[in-house]
From TrEMBL:
One of its GO terms (cellular component) is plasma membrane. Keywords: Cell membrane, Membrane, Transmembrane, Transmembrane helix. This is UPF0391 membrane protein HN018_16805. It comes from Lichenicola cladoniae. The keyword Transmembrane applies.
Length: 59
């Protein structure tokens, strides 16, 4: 969840920079946020697939 928190932080920074008129800074923070979001989604999907194999009931 830490990666998703960083994505939201970069989103807020990009929105604040866009409000104050710093277009280049806002665009770079938005692109960093997008990259982190897609990395989070990929890691989430991978953890869904590999996380299920370890839980087996042994009698």
């Amino acid at each position: 969840m830490d990666l998703l928190r960083w994505t939201l932080i970069f989103l807020v920074i990009a929105l604040v920079a866009a409000v104050f008129g710093f277009g280049g800074v806002a665009a770079s923070f938005a692109s960093i946020g997008k990259i982190l979001f897609f990395v989070f989604i990929v890691l989430f999907v991978i953890s869904l697939f590999f996380g299920r194999g370890g839980r087996r009931n042994r009698l």
